[in-house]
Each structure stands twice: as C-alpha cells, then as structure tokens.
Amino acid sequence: MPNPGEHHPAFEEYCECIFELREDDVEVIQARIAERLKVSRPSVSEMIKRMESEGLIAIDDTRIRLTPTGEELATRVVRRHRLAERFLTDILGLSWAEAHNEAGKWEHVMSTNVEAALDRVLGSPTTCPHGNPIPGSQYSPPDDALRLAQLDMGTEFTIARIPEELEFAAGMLDFLEKTSLVPGTRAKVAAVAENGDIVVSVKGRDVSVTPFASARILVTT
Questions:
Q1: Is the pLDDT of residue 1 over 70?
Q2: CATH superfamily name and code, 146-220
Q3: Strands of the chain, DSSP E
Q4: For the chain, which residues make up each domain, given as ranges?
Q5: In 24-127, where does DSSP find H-type helix?
Q6: What is the pLDDT of residues 156-215, one digit of tens each?
Q7: CA-to-CA distance for 154 and 108, rounded, in angstroms?
Q8: What is the mean pLDDT of residues 118-130?
Q9: Where does 9-71 sit in CATH, by number?
Q10: I need a surface site. Which of 80, 173, 179, 193 has the fewest CB within 10 A?
Q11: Parallel, antiparallel, or unpaired: how do β-strands 205-209 and 146-147 relate?
C-alpha cells in the first residue's frame, strides 16, 4: 500500500498523462488518454471515476482537468521522469528510446532524496533530453518558438523541443536521435516533398520529416 501522501502508480500514470496532454495542447478527454496510454476506453472510464472520487481530477463537460492535488502529483512524477531521462542519457549514455522507457519505471519509485541528488549531480537541468521543461526548474521558454511545418523553404533553424506526443509515436525517438534532429541542432528547410514531408538539411545530409512530426517539432530561427 502507498504511504500517506503517496498514490498508486496507476493514478500517477494518469495524472502524468493529463499533464502532458495539456502541455502539448491536446484536448484532454478520455479518448485522448486511451490513445496515449494504449488502453481501452472502458478502462479509462473506470479509472477516471476512481480519480474523481480520490479528488485528483475534475470534469467540465467532457474535458478533464487536474485538481490542485492532482496537479501536485503530476508535477512530481513528470519532474522525476525528466530528471531520470537526463541521467540515463547524459551520464549512462542510453539512447533516447531506452531512457524514455526506463524513466517510466523510475518515476514511480524515486524517493525525494534521490530526486534531489539527481538534480544536484546533473547541475539542475531545466529540460529533459528532448527539450521539455522540468517542473520546478528555472526553465524559461523561448519567445520565438515555431512549428517546423510553419517555416518557409530555405529557412535556417535550431531544434528547440520535441513534445511528449512525439515520444509516444512508434520509432520516433530513435529516428530523431539517429538523424540528429535533437535540441540544439542547427538545420535548414531544403524542400517540401509531394507527400507533405519536409526535407531538412542537417549535418551534411537531407532528412525527410513527416507532416505528423513537422507539425509538432518546435524550433527557433
């Protein structure tokens, strides 16, 4: 049983999901939660009822929002997940995909002391490896962030952030890491393919980015 003030990992998972859907500007309804967590809608419906009775969420029409208690829980879990990803990639050298999967386990078992130690060892990072803000850090969002899909041909840009929505797309983290489409990388819009892919020139080679990804990757110019 969880200790006082703690919650079952399933509650943590759902609060984290709601937090991240909102962060990605995705409508927070049961269907979106089911898609993100890859569970059935009846399962989501049952869990939402339990979370509402626990005081973790409130429902306005069909839209779901975190209560202050749910927000606190979600913030703690997201912070631990993103610190873990930093440690697993920066210190242990794991790939983005491996780190994302492992951090999904660490976030539920990490103590406050370990969380503080990770933050100290890592030098108080402000983002995860994908550029998403670490709650409780000194993160300051860029003023001029745009979607990659908004850029004109020939525009040079710097990758700023890979939203969580892309982290859950099959194979996307491996693709982005292997093609160097990672935060801090400088690239250029080289062409727009007939299928809607945006071709970017990065580190001496051309890479095709699907419309799904280019509509979500955030960049600065």
A1: no
A2: Ferrous iron transport protein A (FeoA) (2.30.30.90)
A3: 57-60, 63-66, 146-147, 156-161, 186-192, 198-202, 205-209, 218-220
A4: 9-71, 146-220
A5: 30-37, 41-53, 68-86, 96-109, 112-122
A6: 999 999 999 999 899 999 999 999 999 999 999 999 998 999 999 999 999 999 999 999
A7: 44
A8: 97
A9: 1.10.10.10
A10: 193
A11: unpaired
